[in-house]
Amino acid sequence: MSLPPALLGNEQVVVGHDAPSGLRAIVAIHSTALGPALGGTRFVPYADLDAAMDDALALARAMTYKNALAGLPHGGGKGVIVGDPAHDKTPEVLRAYGRLVASLGGRYVTACDVGTYVADMDVVATVNPWTTGRSPEHGGAGDSGDLTAVGVHHGLKAVAEHLWGTPSLAGRRVAIAGVGKVGRRLAGHVLAEGGSVLVADVSADAVARLRAEHPTVEVAASADDLVEADVDVLAPCALGGMITAEVAERLTARAVCGGANNQLAAPALADRLAERGVLFAPDFLVNAGGVIAVGAEYAGRGTYDDAAARARAREIGATLLDVLRRATASGTTPLVAAEALAEERIAAAPPRPPFAGDPGR
């Protein structure tokens, strides 16, 4: 039996179907070399199961590097649920998904992601002890989008220091694509430093909410309008794949640094951006604030230390600066330098049984 190469790069991939609830889900465990795989769960109306599989595999791999660069004792994994959360998300579906994750015995620890929220994780946790991103009333970190935005903010400051010699965002113009959990908060951070913000989002409600908080925010008609806008940095903060080959040719910003996962439609686009003089801050490094939050929740076993998690999220800027300096010294792209640093950390970890779970919940 031959398997697709993408599958062979993972320790374990599980496809689950629960007929009574209608659940269709995939859990991909890319690596447990550093510890139990940790990554969020997406609830998305994928075109088909193949599209869901592609997303799960790419995201799980990114989580391995993200957790390694964040200094967390976790490997990388991801869960995806196929369906429209507005219509298909029910307590029965969430509990069925929780049972699927629990069947892995702690090898994968789940959390929130696109289409899932704190209240959903509270439901999942009723049948699965390996659940994070729960409400504070249940000892959880709550909405991890807060710390994700903190990490991206400090990533932007590192980009500014590398490109312009100062970490200040004062006078810088940032285009934010997507103003949901992360982009809305990121806009506030940029504005608080004296920068200006141009945004786009498919949700008029999301834009209206942001404008109510920050009336000076400018709004573009679509994310495509941000590509050639007069801005210093483009911050993708919605779904992945925004940087296509066509966008890479048209982009006028000096840097790409945002909260979305898998921002490049293909890894080779990092090379093209570099050729055009555009700095690409690796997304799996910059957006690690959320996983830092849920990692702290998991380590606390019901007691979440927000101050410690917040301090670690701020360290993302220092890590990015290290990666940018490594890339400059070695003549590689920041993406290659970040992956190399993550691989170094994984290789330095003490040996673990290849299929060890976590008995300690």
TrEMBL record:
Membrane spanning stretches: none
InterPro entries (UniProt xref): Aminoacid_DH-like_N_sf, Glu/Leu/Phe/Val/Trp_DH, Glu/Leu/Phe/Val/Trp_DH_C, Glu/Leu/Phe/Val/Trp_DH_dimer, Glu/Leu/Phe/Val_DH_AS, Glu/Phe/Leu/Val/Trp_DH_bac/arc, NAD(P)-bd_dom_sf
Listed GO MF terms: oxidoreductase activity
Assigned EC number: 1.4.1.-
All copies of domain Glutamate/phenylalanine/leucine/valine/L-tryptophan dehydrogenase C-terminal, residue ranges: 142-349
Highest taxon of source: Bacteria
Keyword NAD tagged: yes
This protein's record includes keyword Oxidoreductase: yes
SMART domains according to UniProt: ELFV_dehydrog
UniProt KW keywords: NAD, Oxidoreductase
Family the entry assigns: Belongs to the Glu/Leu/Phe/Val dehydrogenases family.
Protein name per Swiss-Prot or TrEMBL: Glu/Leu/Phe/Val dehydrogenase
Organism: Longivirga aurantiaca
